[in-house]
């Protein structure tokens, strides 16, 4: 059964339904409250939590459980379906030639994710390259080069250049023989205009097949504005959630997915290049509710 890894509080509430074949309105209220608590503490946006819980409540009250289905399983199924409906499947990434652009604020984990994703594509038999265009953060070039080395993938950057757009252009030319170009960009501490201008120009040169927004799992309610701004400027096709090895549950990613009408591509689960997983809804939903 999906969702068997639930948090103790929600599981306790659901366990009270064991043996019941019908749910009372009170039962449903109690479950929905528990789910709201879990989602809010996982940093899911308040209005999304309300929308989800309204849908769950409505369906649990109106739909008839299929004959022989215990009430507990019936309501769990609804919760799961509603969350899957919102989160969706992982962002489609065909195993073929492509260019991926990474966007996000400084410290979100872009440089690390670029190397991780390159490593991931290399395990699928493709030849990837990381192109580092971050001329803003001191040390970004060295870090990217070192990580690309650890991932055993090709790398292009220019520590002497201050022109990220030119680096992107040259990077694509210099690595024209590879299959997958992963273009890392500079972040800033906040969504300043020059950051947005810069990434728009890079996007114009790179013409990515897929643009991914990299978000720290701890982002919380700030996800909405970031997602909106990056989506307006370059169009976001998917989200990468990093630092899921920490305590944060990554509920902000749901806001970003909802805001950009996209999906989740990858999860980052550590500092090493191999610490990356392709997104799959089940584990993530269990974690959100846990
Ligand atoms: P950027 O400024 O967006 O390029 O962010 P970096 O890639 O430099 O990452 C910022 C910090 O977060 C670095 O210390 C990384 O090692 C760390 N980091 C990135 N992804 C993860 C992750 O999935 N788990 C953990 N624990 N740390 C991460």
UniProtKB/TrEMBL annotation:
Where in or outside the cell it occurs: the entry states:
Cytoplasm
Its top-level enzyme class, in one word, is hydrolase
Residues binding GTP, per UniProt: 104-111, 184-188, 242-245
**Domain Signal recognition particle SRP54 helical bundle intervals:** 2-87
Keywords assigned by UniProt, alphabetized: Cytoplasm, GTP-binding, Hydrolase, Nucleotide-binding, Ribonucleoprotein, RNA-binding, Signal recognition particle
**Which segments constitute the AAA+ ATPase domain?**
96-280
Its Gene Ontology molecular function terms?
Answer: 7S RNA binding; GTP binding; GTPase activity
UniProt keyword Kinase, yes or no: no
Q: What are the SRP54-type proteins GTP-binding domain coordinates in residue numbering?
A: 97-290
The coiled-coil segments of this chain are: none
A Gene Ontology biological process in which this protein takes part is: SRP-dependent cotranslational protein targeting to membrane
- Reaction catalysis annotation: GTP + H2O = GDP + phosphate + H(+)
Predominant location:
cytoplasm
Could you state one GO cellular component term attached to this entry?
A: signal recognition particle
The EC code for this enzyme is 3.6.5.4
Does the entry feature the keyword Flavoprotein, yes or no? no
Q: How does it assemble?
A: Part of the signal recognition particle protein translocation system, which is composed of SRP and FtsY. Archaeal SRP consists of a 7S RNA molecule of 300 nucleotides and two protein subunits: SRP54 and SRP19.
Q: What is known of its domains?
A: Composed of three domains: the N-terminal N domain, which is responsible for interactions with the ribosome, the central G domain, which binds GTP, and the C-terminal M domain, which binds the RNA and the signal sequence of the RNC.
**Membership in a protein family:** Belongs to the GTP-binding SRP family. SRP54 subfamily.
- What is this protein's function per UniProt? Involved in targeting and insertion of nascent membrane proteins into the cytoplasmic membrane. Binds to the hydrophobic signal sequence of the ribosome-nascent chain (RNC) as it emerges from the ribosomes. The SRP-RNC complex is then targeted to the cytoplasmic membrane where it interacts with the SRP receptor FtsY.
Name-wise, this protein is: Signal recognition particle 54 kDa protein
Q: Which gene encodes it?
A: srp54
